Amino acid sequence: MTKSKWATFCLVAGLLLIAGSFVWTQALPNEVVWSSEQARRLTQSAADVHAEMSSEGVHRHETSNLQDDSTDPSEEADPHRHAAEMMAKNEELRSELGRARFFRFRMPGYLRWAGLAMVVFSGGFLLRGDGTQ
Q1: What is the pTM of this model?
Q2: How many domains does the chain have?
């Protein structure tokens, strides 16, 4: 394949990337990147973390530690470990949401810039006339 054919291919591919970037969010339904089940799990996880952090057990345990420093460390770990596990699960779900948002809303910009770069470089190559060699 000659250089001019590669440049033409890159020019067309770049134009397709630019066109695709403008229809990305309309053509890609929300359910593809973030399902209603994932949204429900994130909402439930946030509610669980909130309930755990504001529950009387954790609050009472924290205030009892302030009053008495002679508590057994193994007793101290249980309520905090459970809360930490719930918070870790919530953070994992939030990072999944962040990736979904990136894929849905930031990817078109990257596609647009990549397509523009391909068009500029291949167009410059074709206009220079180096493709005949």
Answers
A1: 0.55
A2: 1
